[in-house]
Amino acid sequence: MVYGSWDKAPGKPTVLIYAHYDVQPVKESEWDNPPFSPKVIDGKIFGRGASDDKSGVMLTIWAVEAMLRTDGKLPVNVKFIFDGEEEKGSPNFKNFLNKNKELLKADFALNADGSQYSETTPSILMGLRGSAILEFNVKTANTDAHSGQFGGKTPNAAVALSQIIASFYTKEGNVAVEGFYDKVVPTTLEEKEMIKKVPYDKSDDMKLLGTTTETGDTTFSPLERVWYRPTLEIIGMQSGYTAPEGHANIIPGSAMARITCRLVNNQNGSEIIDLIVKHINKNCPAGATVTYKFTKGGAAPLKFPTGTKAFNYVSDALFKFYGKQPLQIAAGFSTGALIDIKETLVIYPYSLGFEQADERWHASNEFFRLSSIRKGQLIYCYYLQHLADEEGKLKK
Fold it and tell me: Whole-model pTM?
């Protein structure tokens, strides 16, 4: 953890700003330029973490730096906490908070690892799905076997794995694991109305990703599926001969798959993993055995309230610069540290970040718009001053 503070405004509110400085791994061969040597091209800065989330780290620092250079002081007290483990679920963050409650005590909190809907349309993140992860290995033999010598009578681990994975889903696109949806609370009318206000065109996603269709249960709208419905995704598989070139005539003796579940409202990650393990054991084909690798991590889901002072200050700052009220959106991803801040420090970390959805987070050729740097700096400066002014009025 990296901590820093400016606390020379006695009697004024304190704002805690969270961001993370760690990044996802890279496959350098997929990048047009070296991923850890930032390069500016056509108004964009390319590099791993340029958007997610070194933009959040640097924008907040530059905003505070600008105010200190200009005014010699800040209108409120500011505390920074930069997380070095967010991309693996912030496994040590909660323990750090518990040990440093007094150090991190604040009246308001911001999550700089956030995004805006577009270059011209502001947004505030009002909900996050949680996550749970699992790896399992299917074994059918002690070794790979020659397909000409043993084919036709020997179980194939890759096939067994495929059969298990196929059993996870219904033809409608839902998760077939018994009990998976039992604790899911239906989307509220307020949330459904919020979704209607958010522009959505499935062709935009298809163009961005190169896909040709949407999947999932069409009983729910696409944004409702991403924001308020849980998922079970296969994020990796490996079995048999996987070298880039050549062809090995084998029957794989083992196979591995990794799973990530995105969870909503009152679902519990441990309970969901238990249900999946029971499902796998029940649907494991004859001749195969399964072992599991349970990994600490994951995150709980989180919803943010509207109509609070904290929400209004962020909304006001975005309105000031965009000239329109921010959309209230939710997200299908997880930021594990945010639920820890809410539960341990008892404050909601509202999002105030400037990433955009097309900036290839976690993918090759990630970038961040230079225009967002100046915009974000100005909005953070205004937010801190606006908060100080409004809180000052309340004390009179």
Answer: 0.78
CA atoms within 13 A on the CB side of 41: 11
Q: What is d(CA 45, CA 362) in angstroms, rounded to the nearest whole number? A: 15
From 13, 8, 10, 14, select the one nearest 104 (Cα to Cα).
14
**Cα distance between residue 262 and residue 332, in whole Å:** 7
CATH of the domain at 153: 3.30.70.360
Examine residue 201 and state whether it is found in any structural domain, yes or no: no
β-strands 14-20, 108-111 pairing: parallel
Owner of token pair 């973490």? 49
> 293, 309, 329: which is the final residue of a domain?
293
Domain of residue 146 covers 130-184+230-293
Which residues lie below 8 Å from residue 380, measured CB to CB, with a gap of 6+? 59, 60, 63, 64, 317, 352
Residue 207 lies in a domain: no
Q: How far apart are CA 384 and CA 386, in angstroms?
A: 6
The structural domain count of the chain equals: 2
287: left (phi over 0), alpha (psi -120 to 50) or beta: left
- 271 within domain boundaries: yes
Q: What is the DSSP string of 269-304?
A: HHHHHHHHHHHHHHHPPTT-EEEEE--S--B--EE-
Enter the tokens of residue 328: 């209230």
d(Cα 325, Cα 313) in Å, to the nearest integer?
Answer: 12
For residue range 98-156, list pLDDT tens digits in order. 999 999 999 999 999 999 999 999 999 999 998 899 999 999 999 999 999 999 999 99
The answer to whether 395 touches 388, Cβ cutoff 8 Å, is no
Q: How far apart are CA 89 and CA 80, in angstroms?
A: 19
Q: Residue 305 carries which side chain, given as an amino acid letter?
A: P
CATH number at residue 356: 3.40.630.10
The model's pLDDT over 249-293, given as tens digits with 9 standing for 90+, comes to 999 999 999 999 999 988 999 999 999 999 999 999 999 999 999
Measured between alpha carbons, how far is 52 from 366 in angstroms, rounded to an integer? Answer: 8
Asked if 380 and 386 touch (Cβ cutoff 8 Å), the reply is no
Q: Collect all residues with Cβ–Cβ distance below 8 Å to 41 and sequence separation of at least 6.
A: none
DSSP label at residue 328: E
